[in-house]
Design a protein that fits this description.
Blueprint (H helix, E strand, L loop, with lengths): L1 H10 L1 H10 L11 H10 L4 H15 L5 H5 L3 H6 L4 H15 L5 H4 L4 H8 L7 H10 L12 H23 L15 H8 L6 H13 L4
Length: 219
């Protein structure tokens, strides 16, 4: 991790300022197993407390750590009773059935390139590219992932890299005129790749700092 942080500070002055404000990188990782991906499905589109409550209820029924067998033994009514939506219970059952049949093989993932891990996991209903990328970052510990669809990363890039430039340009253009309120236009994948180029091969660590930068109060 020290090598990654050192590289980011050396290669990008904007990132260096973010790192110096936030401090050491404390990324937390989960095991690259079925349980982690099933838990990620439960947590999709929910805030922390609600997701945690639902997950605890669900795990009490299915058993912890979660297994395909534990989930497949449950009825839809039991899963709905734990607080899961129809959509999520269908995702969890699809993941469980495909893992049980060997179509999803967690033992293979460690040796696959990033793109193949994404392809392998997105065969499951409800697992999109973003969820697969989070699994790559926080379960498989891949250091060079750039989730271009992540709202937080896009917002932080806008705040630290684009808004500053727009503000400077706006001051010049508005000299002697009444300044207009700027609309927020978040960067797209191509622009994000360009900004993140100098972070390679540690884009995952840079993204962690971008997420943390949105939580950090600044003067």
């Amino acid at each position: 991790m020290k090598r990654a942080v050192g590289h980011l500070k050396k290669s990008d002055p904007v990132m260096r300022a973010i790192i110096e404000r936030i401090g050491p990188c404390r990324m937390q990782f989960g095991p690259p197993e079925f349980h982690s991906l099933a838990e990620a499905i439960v947590y999709q589109q929910l805030n922390g407390k609600a997701a945690e409550t639902i997950f605890k209820r669900f795990a009490a029924l299915a058993g912890e750590p979660l297994t395909p067998e534990g989930i497949l033994k449950l009825s839809d009514e039991q899963m709905r009773g734990a607080g899961l939506s129809k959509q999520k219970l269908s995702y969890l059952k699809d993941l469980s059935a495909k893992t049980d049949a060997g179509l999803v093989d967690f033992a293979r993932l460690q040796d696959l390139p990033d793109a193949e891990v994404i392809e392998h996991l997105t065969q499951v209903k409800g697992i999109g590219v973003w969820t697969a990328q989070m699994f790559l970052m926080f379960s498989l510990k891949r250091e060079n992932i750039l989730p271009t669809g992540d709202f937080g990363v896009r917002m932080a890039m806008h705040k630290h890299y684009l808004d500053v430039q727009l503000a400077k340009a706006g001051k010049k253009a508005a000299a002697g005129k009444k300044a207009r309120k700027r609309k927020i236009k978040l960067p797209g994948p191509e622009q994000m790749e360009k900004i993140a180029k100098c972070w390679e091969p540690y884009r995952s660590v840079a993204c962690w700092y971008l997420w943390k930068s949105l939580d950090t109060k600044t003067l």
